[in-house]
């Protein structure tokens, strides 16, 4: 029973917490979506829901009778937008799923009094959630009403069941009742999950119907913004939207000139939906890559539109995605897309535009060396290196991460070395070895580690060219690589940075053996790589 419940709770949480969704997106598409919320502020937000629940307990879930006119006034005064109402619904649903998990935990420990009190609370939350939803929804199906009734009835049955449990002291009777309570709890969780799925599907259908049928820019804009808010709630919601035809409806907007002003938010919503496989399938069906290519190569579109199109490209080309059925049509349009993205990097007026365009290019370079050859022909290296010298454009570790990714992937080409030397790229790689987070933010620290690792990888690959190795030695890359190997805090205790630095150091040592002291050579170069790695990971840093 316990394993079954954990499985159900995990599935429910996917719909509300959305943890996998944000992780699956590339950093540029996340738009720095991670916001740290003060614990007191979070408590204040949750307080309304909890006090509503207590009020419902006192009133025994009976509504207060009021006059018709007063009721209309109450509803109007408490009316929120569709987006806010759905946020409230999802928060209530998250509380219910958490409470159900806690009931299962208390049940395992035979804490019957706690089980009953929490069951009463869940009962009230479920009724409040259904009442709140029926207050703001325009229409609901017969299926939804039936499911609501089933859930309320089962919650009432659950509450009555646990009340009988706390009134008996017969241990044998309680043990026999425990399996029935577990079964009822599982049924409540199943009905609850089905209802939430149905509600979210219903709301997605309403928004997509507005987008599909409305000729009004304002109504369409509102529907797209609400749809985007839904996509931020997690991958599960993105799957629902994709299954209901969200990608088809949004690309239909992107093919109508009368909605040009809505292209940026439409493309932003598409980027979010395309983090799931269902979104990719829909994109392929509607020839979405051709549409994106047309937008990127059309100079009459705004920079914001081009940037959001680049964000969609960055999403659908993410190396983290395991589904790649859309790549065949992408390869057919790759040359035009790469050309447009390089131009966008060159003409970017802000750091965010450059970040989105360079992220798309970085992902594309993982496909094939053909993409790297295209970038070489387009003088992309010169453009990217020049951008790095402009702190207004390349202003974060995230942007530098994209640039050094492109450099690392292009460094497999022999012709790339001269381009990097001419653009002062070795100096840039040396600076990237010193990358440090200024805020201490977890995502930024991880980006800094990637920058250090990839810059070391790029140096290792390029140092097969004597000219590059000589330039790196003159810029004192060897002492910095040794410092990164020997000092865990310099590399933020990252093993991937350590391995990359050891590889780069060994390559440079071959080209310039005089640059190392004997102790460094004996410990970091001469042994097997794995032995040097173990030595450095076990090394205690000296603070003398």
Give a description of the structure.
Residues 35-79 form the Protein inscuteable homologue LGN-binding domain. It comes from Asarcornis scutulata. This is INSC protein. Residues 92-544 form the Protein inscuteable homologue C-terminal domain. With 544 residues, this protein is mainly α. Among the domains are: 79-202, Four Helix Bundle (Hemerythrin (Met), subunit A) (Up-down Bundle); 424-543, no CATH class. It is built from 30 helices and no strands. The radius of gyration is 29 Å and the shape is flat.
- Strand count: 0
Gross geometry: flat
Helix percentage: over 70%
**What's the main sheet like?**
none
Distance between the termini: 58 Å
C-alpha-based Rg, rounded: 29 Å
Tally of helical segments = 30
CATH class of the domain at 79-202: Mainly Alpha
The structural class is mainly alpha
The CATH architecture term of the domain at 79-202 is Up-down Bundle
Would you give the CATH topology of the domain at 79-202? Answer: Four Helix Bundle (Hemerythrin (Met), subunit A)
Helix and strand string, N-terminal first? HHHHHHHHHHHHHHHHHHHHHHHHHHHHHH
Strand content: under 5%
Low-confidence stretches: 14-36, 52-80, 540-544
List keywords for this structure.
544 residues, mainly alpha, Four Helix Bundle (Hemerythrin (Met), subunit A), 30 helices, 0% strand, disordered C terminus, INSC protein
How is the secondary structure organized here?
Elements: H1 2-16, H2 19-24, H3 27-30, H4 39-59, H5 68-77, H6 82-108, H7 112-136, H8 142-167, H9 171-213, H10 217-231, H11 235-243, H12 246-253, H13 263-273, H14 277-285, H15 288-297, H16 303-316, H17 327-332, H18 334-347, H19 351-364, H20 369-377, H21 380-388, H22 397-410, H23 416-422, H24 425-432, H25 442-462, H26 466-474, H27 477-486, H28 495-511, H29 518-525, H30 529-537
Helix pairs in contact: 1-6, 1-9, 4-7, 6-7, 6-9, 7-8, 8-9, 9-10, 9-12, 10-13, 11-14, 12-13, 12-14, 13-16, 15-16, 15-18, 16-19, 18-19, 19-22, 21-22, 22-25, 24-25, 25-28, 27-28, 28-30
